[in-house]
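Dear Dr. H.,

I hope your travels went smoothly. While you were away I took the liberty of generating a structure for the chain from your last submission, since the lab meeting agenda had it listed for discussion. I wanted you to have the full record in hand beforehand rather than looking at slides cold. The sequence, exactly as received, is reproduced here:
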Amino acid sequence: MWFDKSNPLAVYADKRNEVVSWDEGKTDRRLEIRPDVLCDFSELPFRDETFCLVVFDPPHMNTLGENSRTARMYGKLFGDWESDLSGGFAECFRVLKPFGTLIFKWCSTDIPISRILRLTPEPPLFGHLSGRLNKTHWVTFMKYNKPFQGMQKDAPLN
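The corresponding predicted structure, in token form, is as follows:
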């Protein structure tokens, strides 16, 4: 998703620092995963209310083999992934400034977006479907320090 991973306005964080390579017949392919900050999304090493904008693109598949190419490229959900993602959302909102924006990307190939949105401390503002099969969701949240009255967390994204 990054147009320029070296943009000084962005801090790219990942728990992996590696090169993933694979053979595509006549061509060898490689993906360099070189974050600015090496960390897990459930324990971000930033102070509270540091950022105006956070993009959260966690692994979204739990049926991949651990050493499959897709798992090596994008990561894989393991074990108690619901607690992991809930912790990731909590961390994203913790490091957001008041009224800061969280952009969340999710592919609902294995797990529906409605199940994931129940793990968030804030309701989404709006979302957008994309991809060849309309399974990739881009969801926008805003950090608001007071609870919303009368909003449902699991409301559809239409």
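Two observations you may find useful: The domain at 48-142 is CATH 3.40.50.150 (Rossmann fold). The chain is about 15% helix and 30% strand.

With kind regards,
E. W.
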